[in-house]
Amino acid sequence: DADVTQTPRNRITKTGKRIMLECSQTKGHDRMYWYRQDPGLGLRLIYYSFDVKDINKGEISDGYSVSRQAQAKFSLSLESAIPNQTALYFCATSDLEGNTGELFFGEGSRLTVL
Amino acid sequence: GEDVEQSLFLSVREGDSSVINCTYTDSSSTYLYWYKQEPGAGLQLLTYIFSNMDMKQDQRLTVLLNKKDKHLSLRIADTQTGDSAIYFCAESPNSGNTPLVFGKGTRLSVIA
Lengths: 114, 112
Prior knowledge:
The structure holds two protein chains of two kinds. By secondary structure, chain A is mostly beta strands. In chain A, 0% of the residues lie in helices and 53% in strands. Chain B is 4% helix and 53% strand. Chain B has one helix at residues 93-96; strands at 5-6, 9-13, 18-23, 31-37, 43-50, 55-58, 61-66, 71-76, 85-91, 101-102, 106-111. In chain B, β7 and β8 (71-76) form a beta hairpin. Chain B contains one helix and eleven strands; from the N terminus they run βββββββββαββ. The chains are: A mainly beta, B mainly beta. At the A-B interface, β5 of A face β4, β5 and β10 of B.
């Protein structure tokens, strides 16, 4: 089983709909992140959370919200989806203590907004 | 703010060496990373280098770090078709106290 699991893996929706992307991890990491990938733009940070009570905006948080329901769960919501939110979304985790600060990524959630 | 720059495309012949270059901005980055993204998959850490090192070698991979110029490179020796992927450079700003900042990714195409 994957250590970082994203659901759904693919979603097609219409403009104005509310969408939630969910992320769960079994790595026991404190830090969780949501990134968005667009061709030619690389990975851009949407929101991040360093522990359950901590939520921080990233580079492109407008139009998105997040919820850290537990150490293992971090969900991303689009309250009213618009076509330019069509992208590949990645959840990632990292460990607070020691090591290299490496991020561990989920497999991605591809969202299409029509 | 922090910025990581890398070229978008690189094409090499199978068996040749590939060199992917990256420049970063935060001199306090403790670690610098190379991630690999294969088609349809998430990113996976390929290798990293600690900021007090100049070079790190791991089998076919060689990472060179020039801290003065804030330049990082990844060399893949004897490039294979399985190396075709997008390679992302990333820095860890503020000594790792803020999230990683990624470059736009370099798409490596290996021609058989």
